[in-house]
Amino acid sequence: MRMRNALVDRFGHPPKPFDPLDFPRKLNLGAGWDNRPDYLNVDLNDFHDPDLVGDVRALTALPSGRYEEIIAQDILEHLERADVPVALQEWRRLLAPGGRLWLRVPDLTSLLSWLRRDDDPERHRQVMHFLFGTQAYNGDYHHAGFTGVLLSDELHRAGFERVELEIRDDWLWEGDAFARDPHADAGPPVATVWSDGFYRREYGEDGTTWRWGAREAVLLLYADAATQHELTLTVLTGGVRVNGGGVDRRLEPGAHALTLELEAGANRVRFAADGVQEVPEDARELAFRLA
Q: Which of 13, 31, 251, 276 has its CA 20 to 30 A from that of 159?
């Protein structure tokens, strides 16, 4: 006992073994310096002082189906391409059915369009930074790139559904997906990718949500197999031509419910409006909105 006390006095108590049950049922993967309260923070580097040092591709210390939410910001692009599906399948293993994955990755299409729009070399250096990472230390390099189509397909293959993605800051895909219940009798999953001409989701006090569309807008719907998909559209002024998903119609002002016939893979639905809605103190081009 004296020897033990002397060792404790000199070196302190030995660390407590890691027990995932001591932590919340929410994960913050690749936390970096963004360690969050009410989450189990995981990172590959111990200098970030996470709750658990681990590889997000194989978190064997964590039990299957325990977690209700995973945050994975700016992680997938740091993995080699072959490891992207490995990581997504591991995250699906950790989530309970219906659990939410919230993720963010660079959008290749947006960044490449920046290069075409601007010949300023500093702007091009910024694009290289976003494409290939800061490269400030080992692990801070980018190896994989994504488009809305590719990210939707990878998420579906890994066992996710109800995928919804939107562009943030003009160069990032941000969105969520939910762990599919393998025992549920559901149809083929359809990912919703808000592409050119759509603004971020807005929320009403009554709990309703909507997205404004500009005069011209494109909605990408990515389906695992041929299926029907319902779309609710409110035209505020003038008319809107809708083309894609088996629909080619001009819609007059008012509320419309469209049944789209989606093919397997990427389906692009294009909207072209005659005019825009004048909204005081809102400089955006607002032509119609989707519920």
A: 31
49's tokens: 């002082």
Contact present, 139 and 78 (Cβ < 8 Å): yes
Assign 236 to helix, strand or coil.
coil
The matching CATH number, chosen from 3.40.50.1820, 3.30.40.10, 3.40.50.300, 3.40.50.150, for 1-181 is 3.40.50.150
- Residue where the block lists tokens 């293993």: 93
* Chain centroid offset of residue 106 CA: 10
- As a whole number of angstroms, the distance between CA 220 and CA 196 comes to 9
User: Could you tell me which residues come within 8 angstroms of residue 9 by beta carbon, excluding any fewer than 6 positions away?
Assistant: none
Q: Are strands 288-290 and 209-213 parallel, antiparallel or unpaired?
A: antiparallel
**Confidence band of 5 (pLDDT split at 50, 70, 90):** low
Mind listing the pLDDT tens digit for each residue in 69-80? 999 999 999 999
Tokens of 40: 């189990």
What is the DSSP annotation of 36-82?
A: -TTSEEEES-GGG--SEE--TT--TTS-TT-EEEEEEES-GGGS-GG
Find out whether 242 and 274 touch, Cβ atoms under 8 Å: no
Domain boundaries, the chain: 1-181, 189-291
In the structure encoding, which two tokens stand for residue 226, read together?
């041929």
Question: In whole angstroms, what is the distance from residue 28 CA to residue 41 CA?
Answer: 5
Predicted TM-score (pTM) of this structure: 0.91
**Domain 189-291 - what CATH class?**
mainly beta
